[in-house]
Amino acid sequence: MTETEIFEKLRDLIKNVLGIASDKIRMESALVTDLGAESIDLLDLSFLIEDTFGIVIEPNEFEKDVKKRIPGGAYEKDGYLTDEAIAELRMALPEVDQSRLTKGLRKAEIPSLLTVSVFVRLIARKISEPSKSPAEQGGSKDA
């Protein structure tokens, strides 16, 4: 499945969850800040993505990937991401507006940075991975 095909399917899911017109949904659209998604919408979208694409999205998937790449390093301090964590997020999420990945970023702000293209890339990666059982993939349903 190509990224374009993934985007088309994902756009329909986003349209249904958020009740917005398809033409408002672009690859660079941030789900929270541009499209108005709330945390419950992201959860609903995660369920639909899993059902539609046959994949599993782990809780805090992006955060877990970044933490793995900071062995022995601190991910956050007093609710703020460390410089190491921000550098890793920049590499893990190239689709995100890099000017928003700066010192002073709070862990709780990460969901507001996620764009449609972040999910397209995640879906493409998971589709191309060898099949795993839900238990091996993490078995949960929120991003």
Radius of gyration: 15 Å
**H-E string:** HHHEEHHHH
Q: Provide the helix percentage.
A: 40-55%
| Total separate domains | 1
Number of helices: 7
* Unreliable spans: 134-143
Classify the beta-strand content into a percent band.
under 5%
* Largest β sheet strand count, sense and barrel closure: 2 strands, antiparallel
CATH architecture: Orthogonal Bundle
Report how far the terminal alpha carbons are from each other: 22 Å
Reported by name, the CATH topology is Non-ribosomal Peptide Synthetase Peptidyl Carrier Protein, Chain A
Oligomer: single chain
Relevant CATH superfamily: ACP-like
- CATH class categorisation: Mainly Alpha
What best-fitting shape do the alpha-carbon axes yield?
globular
Number of strands: 2
Strand order of the largest sheet: 1-2
Mean pLDDT: 87
* Structural class by secondary-structure content: mainly alpha
Give me the secondary-structure topology.
Layout: H1 3-18, H2 39-53, H3 61-68, E1 76-77, E2 80-81, H4 83-92, H5 110-113, H6 116-128, H7 134-137
Antiparallel strand pairs: 1-2
